[in-house]
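Q: Convert this sequence to structure tokens.
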Amino acid sequence: MSQEWNIRSRGHFCTLCQKPLVDKAPVISALRETADGYERFDCHPECWKTSERDWDPFSLWDSVYFAPVKEEKHEPLKKEDAGELLRQLVTLDDPAMKNVIYVLAVMLERSKILVERDQKLLQDGSIRRVYEDRKQGDTFVILDPRLRLENLAEVQQQVVALLSGTKTLGEVSGEEEAAANAEPSEPASTGDEAQPETA
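A:
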């Protein structure tokens, strides 16, 4: 599969029985890897337990379903802007932005907007982290680029510049692409990857 990241929205009906999910009731969510990306399942626990499957989930977790609530519009907060920026970047599917996407996801996790549900080490050595939006229930599959400490400050500055509007997506993408072309190939990770701090 060529995609390094992916978004899958939470369903409002059980994938298996098609009956509506109940507000504040337990739900089992799963991701199934396909040739085109990921297929998401949101199911009543009893439906999941009794269904027959000839496949193993890429990721599986228990959570609680919250019915969508219409909210009044308020002045946007920086954390909400970061969430919208993450959605925009994932939708653009620009490999040059992988570091920015990962730092945004970690920022949102530390701000309690996203929660990490799973992580998968794939055969090619890459790590995919599965995040879920606590409020909206959307799932993000994010490539962990294993950032080095010396690269972290620059990526965090790019995220701040994007959120403040002082740089465009095109400018940051160009910077990331130029940096990737200038760097010599690095050996496999030794576990000293950097962890971004919340901006």
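Residues 78-182 form one domain.
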